[in-house]
Structures are given as structure tokens and as C-alpha cells.
Amino acid sequence: MLGFHRRYDPSFRAVRERIRNGEAGVVYQIVIFSRTGAIPPIDYIKVSGGLFRDSSIHDLDMARYLLGEEIASVYAVGGCLADEAIGAAGDIDTAMITMVSRSGALVNINNGRDTPFGYDQRVEVLASHELLRVDNVSQNSTVIGVRDDFKSAGPVNSFLERYTAAYRAEMDAFAAMITKGTAPLADQNDGLEAQRLAEAAVRSIREGRPVAP
């Protein structure tokens, strides 16, 4: 069992089920927004393996999970736009990854280590029958209205808050795997394929061209 916790998020699983059972129709595009709310310490940047390996890898896995098929090509661009210290440490803090699946579906992943409003986790799927969207999880559902404006709470501030339900479901799944032999949602092959895509993104940004994973 591999710890790709986002597979256990109820909203992402609902999107996947609508794709898998045919309700959504043919998938045309998937757009994934995955940005952290605050720049991590430079000591972490120096040992993390880089943005594609420590952060984007979850989004690369999510693309495979939603599509239910493999990726044919990967093209990545990125730069150091938020913090010069990240660039000095040999990493980037802002990136876009464009991929084409074997059936021709298009995937765009938007990553960043900094946002002005907090933790940003959104997915949109455009298919022939439906548009499926998962928005950020808000700190609360209160909306304040005054004559000139409406205000609502911002998104939760960290992955621990955003994916609380997913982590619980993942732990339940781990227990079920041990006690009942229930198959996990992510195994070693999923980890290998996500790592393959991350390495393809690294290679793409170095060579400035699309590459096959």
C-alpha cells in the first residue's frame, strides 16, 4: 500500500467514479491546481528532491487516478518567482506541467510553493457529458453580506486540515488491508508510475521539450 492520500478524498473519489462508470462521458481535459499556502523552510527545499518530486508527484498520481490510463507525454516549465532563496538552493517555486494521455486527453497541472490566500487544492474535469469540479475547502461556510460586498472564509491553511477525511479513510483502508486483504487504492506500481512522471517533468524542464515518461 502506498500513501497517496488524495485518492481517499471523498470529492476526488466521486469525480473518479463518475468518469469510470461513464456518467461523465469522454474526458477532454483535466486541470489540477495544487499550491501550498506558505513557502517551506530552505532546509527542507535542500533535501526535498525538488518541487516535482516532493509536491507535484501527488498531482501526477491524481491525473492517472482520475483518467484510469497512462500518460504518453510530459512537458514542464517552471521558474523561481516567489523566493530567490529557493532558486539559490537549486529548485523552482512555480511550475506548469502539461501532459497528454494515451487516449489523447489533456492534463494541465499548476503548482506553486506560495499563494496570497492560502492552501489551494482544486480540480476541474471537462468531459463530453459533464463538467466536474472540486473546489477548495473553506475554513467555514459563513458568508457576510454588506451593501457593497460579500465576504466568505478563505480555504483551510494546510494539507492536514484539507485532507483530514482522506487520512482517516486511508488509515481505515490500511487496517482493512491487514485484517481482510482488501486491495489499497494505490500500490507500488502507482508509486513507480508517479515517480516516472516526476522524473519526466524534471527531464522536460532541463531539456526544454516534451518527453515520454
Summarize the entry for a quick read.
The protein is of the alpha+beta class.
Which short descriptors sum up this protein?
six-stranded mixed β-sheet, 7 helices, 8 strands, about 25% strand, globular, about 40% helix, Dihydrodipicolinate Reductase, domain 2, about 210 residues, alpha+beta
Description of the structure:
With 213 residues, this protein is α+β, with helices and mostly antiparallel strands. It contains seven helices and eight strands, in the order H-E-H-H-E-H-E-E-E-E-E-E-H-H-H. The chain has a single domain (5-207), classed as Dihydrodipicolinate Reductase, domain 2 (2-Layer Sandwich). The longest helix has 20 residues, at 188-207. Helix 3 (51-67) crosses helix 7 (188-207). The protein is globular, with a radius of gyration of 18 Å. The protein is 38% helix and 25% strand. The protein has helices at 10-20, 42-47, 51-67, 84-88, 159-162, 164-180, 188-207, and strands at 27-35, 71-79, 94-101, 106-112, 120-127, 131-134, 143-146, 149-152. The strands form two sheets. A six-stranded mixed sheet has the order 2-3-4-1-5-6. It has a two-stranded antiparallel ribbon with strand order 7-8. A hairpin with a 2-residue loop joins strand 7 (143-146) and strand 8.
